[in-house]
């Protein structure tokens, strides 16, 4: 490259406006329920308690606005869960056949934390510090649990829009993850349009490293990673700084830390900004099988995160969507047992 062209390149970089540093969610686009003027009683009149809404929607939405989470007991049928877990065990047993990815948070995998299951020893896949990524893409029952009507009906009300599932994580053991808020890591086109469901695939035991969360923490001032509220390659603060900030901010606001000891089939849905994490595992043999799904709205998640310019292929259940994984078409719905449910 000539000196003139190189100088032109440098000048262009200098003169380009710096990307806007985001310090808070944009009030204009936050979900209606997060706005000061939200009228929950009026909004909820459209949901008459009955078969399709087996709870008092106004009560749940009021609780959500104040606490940033809701719990639904016995929401997911146990035979659905057993089918899903049977499929996970099949993948672990015959891992050499599968391309689906896992994230491994062990020191020896720091350089390559995300790998195909076929490239990971079975003993590692069967242990802690493993997250199965987007298992729902391989599994019909995984999709049906992800878009179960209990979850979808509630989130449709929260977003006042069609629900779109973004991704899933499946755990055999507790994550032991430091305190965080999901919006910093899972970013949709409107970052405040995000929520997650934590589905218990077995009764949670106190020594398994249960999930913890701070009710009411969804309204605390956002952490600055040095480049705004999202964590990425340009951030100068890291996830441990984030955790320290959140723990201190919650404590100074007098927010109590709760431990999630729910039963198989129960679920917790949390707000994009609820501070939460995984407690330490105190019995290394105790599993904590769980399925975490992240959601956005139709308005905020229009494309699969791996294929931003292409119209996604959709699967729809209960008036909500999840996209086909464009990177692993050969493994979409390989587990078909869920068709019969
Ligand atoms: O299940 C856990 O321990 C943590 C999961 C979590 O924090 C997440 O997926 O955002």
From TrEMBL:
Q: What molecular function does GO assign, one term?
A: dioxygenase activity
Cofactor names from the entry are: Fe(2+)
Annotated keywords: Dioxygenase, Oxidoreductase
Q: Which Gene3D superfamilies match?
A: q2cbj1_9rhob like domain (2.60.120.620)
Against Pfam families, the record matches this protein to: PhyH
Q: Which InterPro entries match?
A: Phytyl_CoA_dOase-like
Q: What PANTHER family does its record include?
A: ECTOINE DIOXYGENASE, PHYTANOYL-COA DIOXYGENASE DOMAIN CONTAINING 1
**Protein name from the UniProt record:** Phytanoyl-CoA dioxygenase family protein
The organism of origin for this protein:
Fibrella forsythiae
